[in-house]
Design brief:
Blueprint lengths: L1 E2 L2 E2 L2 E5 L5 E6 L7 E6 L3 E6 L4 E6 L4 E6 L18
Antiparallel strand pairs: 1-2, 3-4, 5-6, 6-7, 7-8
Length: 85
């Protein structure tokens, strides 16, 4: 989502060899993406503008979102198997 210093609301997928696979746009409310992770079934994107985590399926369909709790409101990365950081 963030390549260098330029933020984008477009997600680009590449395989392990660096070959381009696909891209899709994040929903409008997810305008300040900061951290991203996937478990191969879903994608979660932390947004520092809304203090929410947005969930997408692997095709880029918006599945939902939830607000971060106060102790996590300044979250910069996410790991689906543990906690927000």
């Amino acid at each position: 989502i963030n390549a260098g210093q330029e933020k984008s609301t477009e997600l680009h997928w590449y395989d392990a060899e660096g070959d381009y696979i696909d891209s899709w746009s994040l929903i409008a409310a997810n305008a300040v993406p900061w951290g991203i992770t996937t478990d191969g079934t879903n994608i979660w994107v932390v947004d520092t503008g809304t203090d929410k985590v947005y969930k997408y399926d692997m095709d880029g369909t918006d599945v939902g979102s939830w607000e971060l709790e106060d102790e996590n409101h300044n979250c910069h990365r996410i790991n689906p198997s543990t906690k927000l950081h």
